[in-house]
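Working notes for the structural subgroup meeting. M.R. asked for a predicted model of this chain before we commit to crystallization trials. I am recording the input and output together here so anyone reviewing the notebook later can reproduce the run.

Input as submitted:
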Amino acid sequence: MRFWCHDSDPVISRRALLRGTAAGFGWLALADLLAGLSRAAGVGDAGANDLAAAGGDRNSSPLAPKPPHFAARAKRVIFLFMHGGPSQIDTFDYKPLLERDHGKPLPFAKPRVVSSQTGNLLKSPWKFTRHGQSGLWVSELFPHLARSVDQLCMINSMHGSNSRHGGALLELHTGSDTFVRPSMGSWITYGLGTENQDLPGYVTICPTLTHGGVNNYSSAFLPAVYQGTPLGNASVPASTAKIPFIDNAGAVPRDLQRMELELVQAANRDRLAATGPDAALEGRIEAFELAFRMQAAAPELQDLAGETAATLRRYGADGGPTENFGRQCLMARRFAERGVRFVQVSHSYKWDQHAGLKADHARNALEVDQPIAALLGDLQDRGLLDDTLVLWGGEFGRTPTAQGDDGRDHNPHGFSMWLAGAGVKTGMAYGATDDYGYYAVDKKVHIHDLHATLMHLLGLDHTRLTYRHAGRDFRLTDVHGGVVHDILA
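Returned structure, recorded in token form:
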């Protein structure tokens, strides 16, 4: 809060007002209160406040690795986000009754609140086949991924709270469909830091510009250093997606840049000493330092020229319809193996088939199938899948009832997501929707439960990783969520 005494007077902060009035006794009281809070945070649960998350030492980097609450199965996360809402009944949730009853009315009530009206049942235009030793069902849309099905933990009973893209994206990414909250990548890097101090802890490659935009990877009221760093956005090809301001890093000698940065940082630190704790200013100080370090690490990391031709072919990053997403998946592997805690790649915004289901879902799957299978295989070959958790899915699924002749509406009431890698059972299907794939009915998993489970695999108790803001303790799952122990290896 700032106080204006007169139109021409300078801005006075609350701390400055306390220092300059009543002989400074208000300032002394505030300083003692802040010190007490800092001491309390330093001895409390991990994540009780930003000081606790940083080990209680303001001189250490807030991105320094921090111990988990308990032994972790996963060290990092790669989130493969399919923006728009893939259809579960056309991909991984086989429904023979839907095929049998094609064209008939849905034999039970539709949700009271829907995105738009739908008609009768619409069977999948793709055949389903069992694959692998596990016998999991996969449609012919994903021939490459079908060969890796024994690595997957398929959740067919996902459900959320919002049928609109904007709210559903925010719920998936932040746990709230109504308020601006920190994203799950921000919460995870806040709780654990990152393993490479020369790179951001949270990177999002070609993120969406719509349906919440930056709020989907924002740190909100968490310190700014935990915000996702975007590489490009959904409007640019992955080949040009770069960390900002890195391409011209060599234009000014490094020692001169260091001198310039020290001048700026000295001014920032003087200001911080005068004002006391200031999350925005501290975030800028850390961001400047990280940006300087990234100039040496990021250019080589973003350059795929060092990858072999065989690797580029494996990911489909050497041309054709798979090139764009293949580059994103290959970049995700490179960030993961260098210790970045949370990496997201987005296939935006293509899966929203209210019409043109057969043509567009086929095109979308063609673009992502080979790159995703290559990523899983590459992580396994490099020994990274044992401690890397891979998550695939969209913000919701689609209805088994038709829109027009060849479309499906939004469906948050039952859909599929899968996990692979560190700490999850493999070759299993968990939960189920009804006979037609509309509602999750068995072993239901809400988005809050998914978040709680992700954090558990990373060694974090979702009920303890909190941050005090505006007079209350916040967490990713708010007052909801439970760990899905049945899918844990």
